[in-house]
Amino acid sequence: MLEIACFEITSAETALLSVADRIEFCSEQHLGGLTPDIEEFRYLKSIYSKPIYVMIRPVGGGFMYSETEFREMRRNLLEFKSAGANGFVFGILGNGNSVDLQRNSELVELAGAVPCTFHRAIDRTPNLETGVQNLIKLGFRAVLTSGGKETAWEGREQLKDMIASYAHRIDILVGGGVRAGNISELKKITEGRHFHSSAIPQYESFANEEEIRRMQMVVRPDY
């Protein structure tokens, strides 16, 4: 499965028309992705049938949120759920950067049958293994991770271990600098099956259809 992270409408439309399996729709790339505009989402859903997962993140910086920000997350999730979101992407940390069990549980419960992915906040936790075990207990369907490192390539050995240990219980979505130039080696080393990329080539600003095609040829050769 190849997911494309789209930070604005141009990349979203490019990816939705491409051979990608789904997109993660968000805003503000320079902040690592925030909750997107609901009207832009409604527009995309009115035209395209490909699955759209929505980032639920009110502010940049760390992944601990005030009570006001958490209420906003709850409200946004319900609004996008009503508008037809195919999945949600979020992650809340608590003291010591551990997974906040209570708040994440509340959002998963609000999502109901809509699958939830825990994003790269997992790479901030002090123990990846404990973190992933908690996500499984909470009901997350997937976790986006670079293996606790800055990029997936740097974390390739950790990703290999995570996939070997937990891929039968939760989808390990390999992300963090994944591009057409390294995805083949990443797939071979990690034995991963799920990959996440912005598909933005160096010195460019938007997702590139040819970049997506080249990655999908590796992820799903029979596509």
Helix percent reads: 25-40%
**How many strands in all?**
8
- Average pLDDT, rounded to a whole number, is 97
Low-confidence runs of at least 5 consecutive residues: none
Spatial extent as radius of gyration = 16 Å
CATH architecture: Alpha-Beta Barrel
**Which CATH class is shown?**
Alpha Beta
Report the structural category: alpha/beta
Count of domains = 1
Q: Tell me the series of helices and strands, N- to C-terminal.
A: EHEHEHEHEHEHEHEH
User: Strand sequence of the main sheet, in spatial order?
Assistant: 1-2-3-4-5-6-7-8
Family: Belongs to the CutC family.
GO molecular function, one term: copper ion binding
Pfam families: CutC (PF03932)
InterPro entries: CutC-like, CutC-like_dom_sf
Summarize the structure in words.
The structure is a single chain. With 223 residues, this protein is an alpha/beta fold. The protein is globular and about 45 Å long. Helices cover 39% and strands 14% of the residues. The mean pLDDT is 97. The protein has one domain (2-219): Copper homeostasis (CutC) domain (TIM Barrel, Alpha-Beta Barrel). The protein has an eight-stranded parallel beta barrel with strand order 1-2-3-4-5-6-7-8, surrounded by five helices. It holds the Pfam family CutC.
